[in-house]
Specification:
This protein has 462 residues and is mainly α. It contains 23 helices and no strands. Helix 2 packs across helix 6. It is globular, with a radius of gyration of 22 Å. The two termini are 26 Å apart.
């Protein structure tokens, strides 16, 4: 079969990037809008006079959603490895649309007692399953669909779209804050973003149906006879067990990044309101501005990793987070103005960019095609369930117990564990993600008669 013309190939890669990113945006909009609007609907489901306790209850349901992420990562990661990245991406956005609609129509405590909280819980569990598969499917899709020398750039759009999803939620929140009264927001206004999320997901469902499958997966599906035995175990836990060291690496390298990310994104607004005493509207504007600049940074860091490797950026993040979390969070707790809070938030997010911009590529580059989506999904989802999803709850627990600063040390400790991992792990930039790339490496080595570096993890593990 003749190769596609260069122009067609570039066009296909751009369409894959846009299609995968827009779908990811809506998925994460639905996921994050829960945290963004929690300050308005917490008392609708959990009665009481203590605002911190109400937020802890809603944060607890936010964390419970993460418990389903390993389940979703396993089921949908397996589906992505066996039936294709495209089919898994379509399924995840369908599940997210249903979950958003459930939250939008959930009855309040005054209408149905704790049944409303139960509906909220069920919706978050469904969202957890969806997002558990979405991360792996989109990380694998964006990485495989990118040119080999631009995988850092291509995969960086995962966090661009994730952050833009959160920005969309914050933008809607800011709009509603300026068009509705606080009483209206607490009464019914908080339902609007979930209704919009369900509608957005329907549009993305149509979009993802039009995406093309990646060449790496199509190549694996059309493997010759000698590799036929791989088909029965493709995307299974048995196959993943052969790469348990890589799975362990995914968990360890995720630990520090996920705790830091959720600290400075989903928890930041509540921290500025509850600890710094900032107005809700001002705190929301700080988060919106900081996250906008954060999203812009991602592709530049991704391109840098394509030139110098992944490890330097990961190590820079871990060192900065280990050393800088306590002073940054302490200063944010006493920030008295928009500009001081914005400057400190940006400093933290610049540090975190070393992780967020390239972690999708690093994880995908650790595994071969037949188990790549599951290999990314399951260990990442477990790490997120244990540490990312509980970050906000742990922060509020320390605050409620009168030892808020202990949370800062907790974040630093998680980053330190990841730092050790980054120092010891190999750089994955040169990994071959397909047989075609591996064969190109062999041809290049033969022609140049020069020794190239040892095989990168994805191919060395085959």
């Amino acid at each position: 079969m003749p190769a596609s013309p260069p122009g067609d190939e570039r066009r296909k890669r751009r369409l894959a990037l846009v299609g995968g990113s827009l779908g990811n945006l809506v998925e994460w909009y639905d996921w994050f809008v829960y945290a963004s609007f929690a300050i308005y609907f917490a008392d609708s489901f959990f009665p009481g006079d203590n605002p911190t306790t109400q937020l802890m209850n809603t944060a607890g349901i936010f964390a419970v959603g993460f418990l389903m992420r390993p389940v979703g990562g396993w089921i949908l990661g397996r589906a992505a490895d066996r039936h294709g990245r495209k089919s898994a991406l379509t399924l995840t956005v369908t599940m997210m649309s249903v979950a958003a609609l459930l939250i939008a129509v959930a009855p309040t405590y005054g209408q149905a007692g704790y049944f409303g909280a139960l509906v909220l819980l069920l919706a978050r569990l469904l969202q957890g399953m969806s997002i558990g598969g979405e991360y792996a499917a989109s990380a694998t899709y964006l990485t495989e669909a990118s040119a080999r020398n631009r995988r850092g750039l291509g995969s960086s759009f995962q966090y661009v779209s994730m952050t833009c999803g959160q920005l969309l939620g914050l933008g809607i929140l800011i709009t509603l804050q300026h068009t509705l009264t606080t009483a209206q927001l607490q009464s019914w206004g908080w339902r609007l973003p979930f209704l919009l999320g369900a509608l957005f997901a329907v549009v993305v469902f149509w979009l993802r149906r039009r995406l093309q499958e990646t060449d790496a997966f199509k190549e694996e599906s059309a493997a010759p006879g000698e590799d036929a035995h791989d088909d029965s175990t493709r995307g299974t836990l048995k196959a993943l067990w052969q790469y348990r060291r890589q799975a362990g690496l995914v968990m360890a390298l995720t630990l520090g990044g996920t705790v830091a990310y959720y600290t400075y994104t989903t928890y930041l607004t509540k921290y500025l309101v509850g600890s710094a005493g900032m107005e809700k509207t001002t705190a929301t504007l700080v988060s919106f501005t900081a996250l906008t600049l954060f999203a812009v940074l991602q592709p530049f860091a991704g391109m840098l990793s394509d030139r110098i490797g992944r490890r330097p950026l990961l190590i820079t993040f871990a060192v900065g987070c280990t050393v800088g979390t306590y002073p940054i969070m302490t200063a944010l707790g006493s920030a008295s103005s928009y500009w001081s809070a914005l400057g400190l938030s940006l400093l933290a997010l610049v540090i975190i960019t070393g992780y967020t911009s390239i972690n999708a590529a690093v994880k995908a580059e650790l595994f071969p095609t037949r188990v790549r989506a599951l290999g990314v999904a399951l260990p990442y989802a477990i790490a997120n369930a244990l540490f990312g999803g509980t970050a906000e709850y742990v922060a509020l627990w320390f605050k409620n117990s009168g030892h808020e600063s202990m949370f800062f040390w907790y974040v630093s400790g998680c980053a330190l564990i990841s730092l050790v991992t980054y120092v010891l792990m190999p750089d994955t930039r040169n990994a071959a993600l397909s047989r075609a790339e591996a064969e190109a490496d062999g041809e290049s080595e033969s022609e140049s008669k020069q020794e190239r570096p040892a095989a990168a993890p994805a191919e060395a593990a085959r």
